[in-house]
Amino acid sequence: GRSAGMGGSGSRRGTMSAEGDRVQDGALTTLAWLRKAEIQPRKAWGQNFLINARVAERMVARWALSAGDGVLEIGAGAGSLTLPLLARGAAVVAVERDPRLCCLLRERAAREAGASPLRVCCGDILEVDPIAEIETFQRELAAAGRRPPGQWVLVGNLPYRFTAPILEWAV
Fold first, then answer.
1. Where does residue 12 rank: exposed (0-12), middle (13-18), buried (19+ CB within 10 A)?
2. Per-residue confidence at 169, pLDDT binned at 50, 70, 90?
3. What percent of the chain has pLDDT over 90?
4. Per-residue pLDDT tens for 100-152?
5. What's the CA gap between 62 and 108, in Å, rounded?
6. Nearest to residue 66, comparing CAs of 153, 156, 162, 168?
7. CA gap 121, 82 in Å, rounded
8. Strand partners, 122
9. 60 with 157: CB under 8 angstroms?
10. How many Å apart are CA 106 and CA 122, to the nearest integer?
11. Which among 38, 42, 144, 159 has a CA at the least distance from the CA of 91?
């Protein structure tokens, strides 16, 4: 499994063949979406994209979430964890700092997750008000006739260099 940059300088790390750009149901892979949007990781932000769908699926499966649970996802990126969370019936508030990835995530979720309950918040988790985002999302769900989550969990694929400040914020 890889959580990798997109390669470069002749590196094969994080690359796939053209036929590997689609998964069995015809949806594009995370790497294919990143390529399509011409997005490379920003090293200054410590970005590292999770591109192995099997790893993402195993991570989500181990969290033992129930359908209808609410998830605050930090560092949603291109949706590697977001889409499996939505597929399991979670309602997700996805916080992503990179505007390029916010746009990509919205487009990808619209195509691959349909009407699944998702709110994308484009901003730095240390600067946004996640409680306000969750409350707004719950009101939107209720207004749409959907049951808002009763339980919320925090998940994320965090850049190593920002883990300490984020954990301090979360606690």
1. exposed
2. confident
3. 60
4. 999 999 999 999 998 899 999 999 988 999 999 999 999 999 999 999 998 99
5. 24
6. 153
7. 13
8. 96
9. no
10. 10
11. 144
Which has the closest alpha carbon to 73: 50, 54, 52?
50
| DSSP 8-state assignment for residue 149 | P
| Nearest-angstrom CA–CA distance, 141 and 17 | 40
**Antiparallel, parallel or unpaired: β 49-50 and 3-4:** antiparallel
Our CA dihedral for 104, 138, 85, 157, rounded to 10 degrees, sits at: 70
Distance in angstroms between the alpha carbons of the first and the last residue of the chain = 30
The mean pLDDT value for 5-15 works out to 35
Residue 35 contacts residue 21 (beta carbons within 8 Å): yes
Q: Are the C-beta atoms of residues 132 and 109 closer than 8 Å to each other?
A: no
The residues pairing with 74 across neighbouring beta strands, listed in sequence order, are 95, 156
- pLDDT given at position 64: 87
Query: Residue 90: helix, strand or coil by DSSP?
Result: coil
Distance CA 143, CA 95 (A): 22
Amino acid at 128: V
What tokens does 153 get?
Answer: 């969990």
